[in-house]
Amino acid sequence: MADPRNGGKRNLIIVSNRLPLSVKQTDDGTYQSSISSGGLVTSLSGLTKSTTFKWFGWPGLQVDDPQDREKVSKSLAAHNAVAVFLDQKLANQHYNCFSNQILWPILHYQTVTLNESAWESYKKVNELFAESVADAASDGDLIWVHDYHLMLLPGLLRKRLEEQGKFCAIGFSLHTPFPAKDFWRALPVRKELIEGILASDQVGFHTDEYKQNFMDSCHSLLEATIEPPDKIRWKGRWIIADSFIVGIDPQKFEDTLQKPEVISRIKELEEVYKDKKVIIGVDRLDYIKGLTLKLKAYDAFLDEHKELKNKVVLIQVAVPSREDVKEYQDLETEISTMVGKIDGKHATPDGSPLVYMHRSVPFTELTALYAVADACLLTSMRDGMNLVCFEYVACQAKKHGVLVLSEFAGASSFMNGGCITFHPANTKELSDAIYRAITMRPDERESNYNQLRRFIDKNTSARWGETFIERLTKCTA
Ligand code: ADP
Ligand code: F6P
Fold this sequence. Notes:
The protein is 45% helix and 18% strand. It has 17 helices and 17 strands. Keywords: Glycosyltransferase, Transferase.
């Protein structure tokens, strides 16, 4: 990463709404930080092993007092993170109202209505990020912006940097699907958002389908020129648009599986479930993850396979997410009701076929759960990539467990028959997929596993990040 404009060094700046640590204030007024969950943090954290960068983002709460800001900034600085402080009302409008009630649904093919004041706040927050990042950047730096919370940032940054006489390369990566052009155009501010992204030098997507959808929108809404396979011409500039396969850090799971406490936890769980087939599900409690469809199909599966009574258990971890958003609160209620009904219908004095955990679990526990499960069931209605499925594979070197993955998760387009796929809203298909998974022959499991394992070992998060940065560096050299 050499650049003569900055003493031969091109620093990397990452910008995302969510930081690797989320800060909360405790009842006694002190600040506590915890590791954030979600695919974005997982993939970027995997890059930290090989690449050094500063990570700008929102700390998750309002901090007004300058001394408190100092304290929060200091604790984040230990993780190379820099806080972009926001007023709580503004952050709420930006994160909950616009990003998660308008952009998130439309990116996942749900219809929405524009909330004008939330749009104003979205613009304002993107401006505040631009101010903070542009001031901190040096001439020649690489700036990599992430996700739908900051779609306007590339445009605002480019303007500010130019005003300050700094020439930085700007990359943008989207961690969600990008929908088909006819869907995207339903959003009244559809043009402004893609114009914002097009101020980048390079734009990354998880799959070719999302990239193509984005290019189609650029062409039909902005009359941008598309030069297949990966170039867009817009306002006299060339922009690279491509898919970059995001992954995990498999070694982190291998190392965790060697820890004595994880080994003994696995033994304990194996004892608890010794006569049962274990199916694991790990999802943020989000409607795109298809949890209601999963429970409906599991109920149908239990009805159909009475011979498996007390012989199968679904352990579903539902990580709390976006709890201030009404749709997520309603989902929580709906899922709890469904869980209660399934439990009431199928549980016996010997146990329940469903274990529902609505909380975040420690990484060691998560790893142990992945390791003991005979199958992993992920039923997303839409999902940018889905990293949980790769994590499950990383923990299954001994068991060769079966991956049962919705055809609507980005990851399914890379699995080439190594897993069972299904349409999540087809209850019968999904119930049959569960049955096939827990009755699959060992030789088929092994050959599927080997195929998936090769994929996750090759396409790590480090490789994803390094490839993106290398191409961004080249295209702006
Ligand atoms: P999304 O980005 O939509 O949440 P992904 O499947 O891509 O979906 O990523 C979810 C990530 O969150 C995984 O890497 C998973 O391990 C991680 N995760 C799940 N539970 C926790 C937890 N309790 N703490 C931290 N990370 C978690
Ligand atoms: O996968 C999309 C995404 O927005 C990621 O950026 C993030 O890791 C995850 O969902 C969790 O979202 P949030 O930041 O709202 O907790």
